[in-house]
Amino acid sequence: MTDLEADERAEQENLPRLFYITALSVLIGYLLWVGQALIIPFVIAIFLSFLIVTLKNILKDKTGVGKFLPDWFLYILTFTLIALVLIGLVGVIRQNTESLIDAAPAYWANLNEISKGGISWLRQFSFVPADFSDTIEKYQIKLQESLPALLGGLGTTVRSFATNLITILLYTIFMLIERGNLIKKLKLMSSESHEQAATEDLLGNIGDLVRSYISTKTIINLCVATISFIWLTFLKVDFAGFWALLIFSLAFVPIIGSPIAIGLASLLALVQPDGGGGQLALLTLGGLIAAEQTFSSFIEPRLMGKNLNLSPLIILLSLGLWGTLWGFAGMLLCVPITVAIMITLSQFHTTRPVAILLSDNGQIAPIKRIAAREAEVAAAEATSSENIS
Question: For 123-154, what is the HEC assignment?
Fold first, then answer.
């Protein structure tokens, strides 16, 4: 058989495989979109359980008291602590959202006056096209008409999250209970010892990276939100607690999350009925940007380093993909989900090229089961050589 015939035969064999992979990808995407009401709380519970395990390990290894407490008690303690924090955050967000909705007409009236003044100022200049100012005015009217629907949607989202929180916490409880058995069952799916070791290693790598990302990002976001709250309170910006929580939450959304939160807080400072204005907005904007950039540009890279190894373009694409499938929840979860997918794909010959494309520098982990098998063979050969000698 010539090389040309071999290439043609290989292409013919790859066509059905490509078709099945494409069909399977479309089917999985459809199921993720249709079943998002069930899947999203489940996925959030998975990452919440990672955070609980991390906090439990910190209490066990880093504190003197934790060393003398049983694991089951530490799990209950950390779960209770995180559940109380989440319930408190939901209560604060709900209360502030309702207050913001009630005060929205006064803020909108102020914004309307500022925008009208800006449009009149622009029309004084001959080099500014008339269509430009007319377009701004047209969008302002459309925004004013859609404002009740936007505020109603915000309230619905908050109430929906409060309802789903109970489901998420229940999922988390059963995941923590089943955690040990699930790992054992995944290992037993492989019959050979080196494959079981590789499976355990793979699960460990995914868990370590996801736990590292979630815990580090949570601490960094908490620090930024705390500094932002102090700065907003000092400037007497309304709803300082709400904006601090929004900055904390949206910071999990890569690339666009922090700018949106900072922009909204600065816009509210601009149109604040009592004591707002351009100076307050600039001070708010400058302080929040300084706090966010200090952590994201200097501290976060030192703590995370290149552990995630995700291409910035892939992060942006995953943000759009998961945001399209699951909305805001998908934006929050896109990075840890993509990291887990990349690590899993790197452990199989057929999918390693995809993992390389997802990575930042092309350097991905070796296939664990092959490395483990080679180590076993090397150990057996060494033992055999010793016996012969």
Answer: CCCCCCCHHHHHHHHHHHHHHHHHHHHHHHHH
Residue 84 resides in a domain? yes
Considering only residues 152 and 20, tell me which one the structure prediction assigns the higher pLDDT.
20
157 in Cβ contact with 246 (< 8 Å): no
Rounded CA separation 177/52 (Å)? 12
Count CB atoms within 10 A of the CB of residue 252: 19
Mean pLDDT, all residues of the chain:
76
Q: Return the sign of the alpha-carbon dihedral for residues 139, 145, 149, 152.
A: positive
For residue 380, give the amino acid letter: A
Same domain, 73 and 149: yes
Are residues 167 and 55 located together in one domain of the fold? yes
Backbone angles phi, psi at 249, to 5 degrees: -70, -50
Residue 130 domain flag: yes
Instruction: Let me know how long the chain is.
Output: 389
Q: What amino acid is encoded at 260 in this protein?
A: I
Taking the C-alpha atoms of residue 300 and residue 255, their distance in angstroms, rounded to an integer, is 14
Cβ atoms of residues 141 and 14 within 8 Å: no
32-58 per-position pLDDT tens digit:
888 888 888 888 888 888 888 888 888
Q: Residue 338: pLDDT above 90?
A: no
Domain assignment of residue 97, given as a range:
38-189
